[in-house]
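Inverse folding, one chain.
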């Protein structure tokens, strides 16, 4: 039942994005990198490079499960924080370019994408954390 719940959540988000008719507007490489690089760096900084191994290891021992939960928590929190920081960077860039009023809408859309990416990472890591622990969502 739990794997079905994660599949349904992901599919509902994908369906909402596809339903807009302009799915490409939800993808911006610099916005994604502003979120992904700090998430990867936070794993290495907090858990060392062995943290990547713990994340993908299939063991279900008590310590391994606890370590995996801590890594997923680090990823989720860092995703949200870096997403908000990325949005602030985008807003500052947008406000520095107010000479063209027609560019404000598209610039704001790109500016809020890092928060979207960070919240999506937080959602996925929270669900995966509960799946690893065997607790109910």
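Residues assigned per position:
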């Amino acid at each position: 039942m739990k794997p079905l719940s994660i599949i349904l959540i992901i599919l509902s988000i994908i369906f909402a994005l596809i339903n807009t008719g302009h799915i490409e507007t939800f993808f911006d490489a610099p916005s994604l990198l502003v979120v992904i690089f700090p998430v990867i760096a936070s794993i290495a900084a907090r858990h060392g490079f062995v943290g990547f191994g713990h994340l993908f290891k299939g063991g279900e021992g008590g310590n391994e499960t606890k370590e995996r939960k801590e890594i997923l928590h680090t990823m989720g929190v860092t995703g949200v924080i870096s997403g908000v920081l990325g949005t602030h960077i985008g807003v500052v860039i947008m406000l520095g370019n107010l000479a063209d009023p027609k560019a404000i809408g598209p610039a704001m859309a790109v500016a809020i994408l890092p928060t979207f990416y960070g919240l999506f990472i937080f959602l996925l890591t929270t669900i995966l954390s509960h799946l690893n622990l065997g607790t109910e969502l």
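Residues 59 and 65 are 8 Å apart (CA to CA). DSSP finds six helices and no strands in the chain.
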